Amino acid sequence: MTTSLFLCDCGGALRKSIDFEALEDRLSSYEGVGPVTILSSLCQRDGLERIQREIETRAPSSIVVGACSKRTLLPVLERAAREVGFNASLIEPVNLREQCAWVHDDRAKATQKAERLMKGGIGKSRLLRAIETRETTRLASVLIVGAGVAGIQAALDLANQGFDVKLLDESPTIGGKMALLVKTYPTDDCAICILGPKMAEAASHPNIKLLTYHEVVGAQKRPEGFKVRIRRKPSYVDPGKCTGCGVCAEKCPVKVKNEWNGGLGFRKAIYLPYPQAIPRKYVIDSENCLYLKKGVCRICEKFCPAKAPNFEDKAEEFDLEFGTVILSTGFEEFDPSWAPETGFGKYPDVITQLQLARILDPSGPTDGKLKRPSDGSKPERITMVQCVGSRDPRYSKYCSRYCCMAALKNSVLVKIEQNPQSEITILYKDVRAAGKGFEEY
Ligand code: SF4
Ligand code: SF4
Asked: Tell me: the pLDDT tens digits for 58-110?
């Protein structure tokens, strides 16, 4: 078990800072160390051939190379080692250039440091194990977890390059939060008008398969990618039969708060998240459906012209293999009831920006008309409180990079589209418009 040592003075450039002969002397006395060789240009062909000769004549158990940065040196060393059948994982590079010679003036101390660095490399080389390399082909399939705008765009980009893409979301629709924002800053474009065509394109793309109402249960790393366990949640509606006509929701007697409108307004126990949802397939909310909870009702089944409700539906799990997994899981809105000084949860007219966006949305709970949740009247004075839950040591010290722009956008929408006479006050620490064109907005 001997370790061969090579020192490179980088064409003599490192000699000003390091005494290579003294270093060679000291390292030669280390136990288990074979010959110490000083080279002037280890990374050049003759330097690499010198290492190859050492391997062929002495068959060292490992090699420690004191030279320059690992990033620069290791690829050429590995190639040279492989050429003579030496396992490249048994080579330990030590950076004597950037981490020693270039940053010290005192030659004696730098030489001492170089010795310590080499000593560390020698110690590590004794723990090295030959790692077997195998070549595998990466699967050309991609799982994208989260079908908001980022996931959809990634899916389209990859699918257009020929990748086989599965676009997964735990909710019954793709589109994520952007679909709920009514308009987007800094251009005030209609959010669903931008997103809707992308949603439709993703749904109809031959290389994209939607896995809505699915979730990831687990994943295993494989050389060729990942084996992912996926769970399909029971929707209790056969998607192959459902035409999205909505008759079932009209007849369903159960009303629950509509989480797709931030808890404002109601939806039925059988529902479509919002009118532009894709796929346009209704799902039954098992926590509120009378039949699934109490064994009575099935009105939706009675009125459904396609006989799509399927109360026998069960969750199922299956494995799929992917070359790549992209996580685009987005965000959850902060729950301001955590900050009781805001009055959120206590006073019905204290709402979040997302709830306001839903109120301003023509497909939202008030059909796009600005109304107070408490009495349906039009508010004349509105106060927006910034940094709730962010830049607050009680919850998160970081800036959300979102709420300043959301407040400005919603203020503009209220002023321009709803009530030019309204008086809007924004309470802020400082306005952080962090994005292209945001400051101008
Ligand atoms: S479940 Fe039936 S009634 Fe409901 S939307 Fe689908 S097809 Fe129409
Ligand atoms: S069975 Fe459930 S989903 Fe269907 S109508 Fe009754 S409560 Fe609504």
From this structure: 999 999 999 999 988 999 999 999 999 999 999 999 999 999 999 999 999 99
Nearest CA to ligand 1 atom 7: 242
Determine the pLDDT at residue 36.
96
User: Among all chains, which residue has been given the structure tokens 């009378």?
Assistant: 290
What is the model's pLDDT at position 434?
85
Share of the chain above pLDDT 70, in %: 100
Count of structural domains, the chain? 4
Question: What is the end-to-end Cα distance of the chain in Å, rounded?
Answer: 69
Separation of CA 300 and ligand 2 centre (Å):
5
Q: Which atom of ligand 2 is nearest to the CA of 299?
A: 5
Does any ligand 1 atom lie closer than 6 A to the CB of residue 245? yes
Report d(CA 367, CA 317) in Å as an integer: 39
Q: Is 159 in the pocket of ligand 1 (CB under 6 A)?
A: no
d(CA 402, CA 332): 13
One DSSP character per residue, 134-182 reads: ---PPPSEEEEE--SHHHHHHHHHHHHTT-EEEEEESSSSB-TTGGGSS
- Same domain assignment for residues 260 and 286: yes
Where does a domain end: 92, 125, 158?
Answer: 125
What's the confidence (pLDDT) of residue 133?
82
For residue 389, give Cα distances in angstroms to 337, 352, 396. Answer: 10, 12, 6
- 37 plus 116 within the same structural domain: yes
pLDDT band per the 50, 70, 90 thresholds, residue 134: confident
Does residue 308 have its Cβ closer than 6 Å to ligand 1?
A: yes
Q: Are residue 422 and residue 345 in the same domain, yes or no?
A: yes
- Name the closest ligand to CA 289: 2
Kindly report, residue by residue over 156-199, the tens digit of the pLDDT.
999 999 999 999 999 999 999 999 999 999 999 999 999 999 99
Ligand nearest to the backbone CA of 307: 1
Q: Is 248 close to ligand 1, i.e. is its CB under 6 Å away?
A: yes
Same domain flag for 201 and 321: yes
Measured from CB, residues less than 6 Å from any atom of ligand 2 are: 252, 254, 269-270, 284, 289-291, 297-300
Cα(232) to ligand 2 centroid in Å equals 21
Ligand 1: centre distance to CA 307 (Å): 8
Which of 173, 235, 236, 237 to probe ligand 1 with, by most ligand atoms within 8 A of CB? 237
Domain carrying residue 10: 3-125
Please tell me the residue having the least CA distance from ligand 1 atom 4. 248
Go through 302-325 and write b for each residue having 16 or more CB atoms within 10 A of its CB, e for each that does not.
eebeeebbbbebeeeeeeeebbbb
